[in-house]
Queue: 2 jobs
Job 1
Amino acid sequence: MPSADILYNPVAGRVNADDAVQRAAAVLESAGWDVHLKHTRSARHTTRLARRAAEKGRSAVFVAGGDGSLGEAARGLLGSRTALGVLPSGTANVWAQELGYETLTAFRPTALEDAARIQAAGWTQWMDMGLCNDRPFLLWTGAGLDGEVVRQMEGQRASRRAFPYVRYAWYILQSIFRWRGLRLKMEVDGQPLDERYILALVSNIRLYNGGFTTLAERNCVDDGQLDLWLFRGENPGDSFRYVVELLSNRHHDDPAVTRHTFERIRLEATRRVNLQMDGDSVRMKRELEIRVAPRALRVLVPNPPPEGLFSQPPEQLT
């Protein structure tokens, strides 16, 4: 009998998910799973609970929350055979969007049950994770404009459930007029770079910006590489242009935007860096080493999985 812990973040998302989580648990139980529901108190607590589940040999850990909560659980599962499942009840749920799941809202009250029903079949894939100064991340880490926006939003965490996209847009507008870019030194593909960037973004997936932006049409999450997107600039006009381009998916046409694939990269900033890491704010030192951990995380997926997301066929839980 497959077993799972469901980790539930009570402050994530736009609606109260208690009843929906219970219904999702019932779906898994009706499919033959042994299910244990656990509330989380903090990011570190989520990571500890996930690690404990892996140590107990659980088949899977389901996270009812957003991308930040998923990233926290992934840190605890890194390198184990316990699979990460998603019950999308956070604000944006970009990883769930990659897999084709809907987000729990007042208009989609069965979203968690639907996602649980698909994942109850037990199909899995292995995917890469990123390490930033040895701190694991699941989806992205970014320095620059998005790091500043997320830092400001972090201070208003208690009110993020109300009108989240309106608040996000407000913080973007505030940051645009203040941000003058971040000077970074790095070596990419053997080429030294030393410029100012509005945004330097490392991505493990195709989607970004709450799912509104498709960074790349094809980007396998199990190819042993990460993408580095560099947006050169130094003034509010550059920031505004990039926000518009990202929202309209026209960043590919801008010659000041470059994409690099890598396995390991070192960056040095002129000051300490506020990073956006899986949608959460993280303060880092000036020197950053970012590298890929190939096929380090097992994840539950639909069968067939979304085209182009994985290079290998799915396998059943064992």
Job 2
Amino acid sequence: MDSEKCTIIMSILKNGSMSAAAEELNYTQSGISRAVEALECSAGFQIITRGRGGVHLTSAGEALLPAIREIAYWAEQYEQEVQRLNGAVTGRLAVGSAYAKFFPWLTKVVSGFHESHPGITVELCSGTSTELSERMSAKSLDFGIVSRRDGTFESTVVKKDSLVAMLPPNHPLAQAKSVPATIFEREPYIEIHTGLQTDNTLCFRSRGIVPKLSFSTPDSIIACGMVKAGLGVALVNSVIADELRGGVAYVPLDPPENVDICVITPARKVISPAAKSFAAYAMGFISEL
């Protein structure tokens, strides 16, 4: 299987379209289309479908995805190692954070790194801690700041955090020192990131709590507004609360729900030269996080 064509497939899936993949890889769109057609012809079946909803893998494409991903990843590794041996550091990196609070630090690090490594392209991305950890395990992320998750990657605890209840300002417990997590079973609960694994869902699972789900939103800022309006209560990380504030009360849980904030990087045996250089540079500024 042609590694270049595998790289094209991965770019199409990441960017959601052939035109975006063409722009990222400096191809013409017709060149991207021909590469996909050639790969499908050699396979003997369709790998991706194109429609109004974007580009998606077929069932056969899903079955091939792990192999396509590995081939594309190791092809990139090969190119980076060749460049390193020739005295240059090049490549593409994807770095991200599950928390908006850390993006100013991350962008500062990326800026400084780019000055000394102009041959390395860096993509900044976001997602939940679980989403970014899954990307790291799938070799499509090179550096991440997340709540602790299991996976096939290196993980270093850099901060201690906790979950706090977000309550309306006139709530009877708004001035309390702490609240029991069972409050979410009794009062209307506003869920953030419905259907995704989050620190909230892990907390509820470990405590055997089934929240009284009344509202949902994909955004903590919107959740804050809903709580302020008296629609219900929510649960957020303290690092998120630090960014929100805004006329609501934040009260720790009793007992506390502590969360480790970690930097994750690829496993030592698979990390690319570019990712290794970025991780070493970033960790030099970790005290500023």
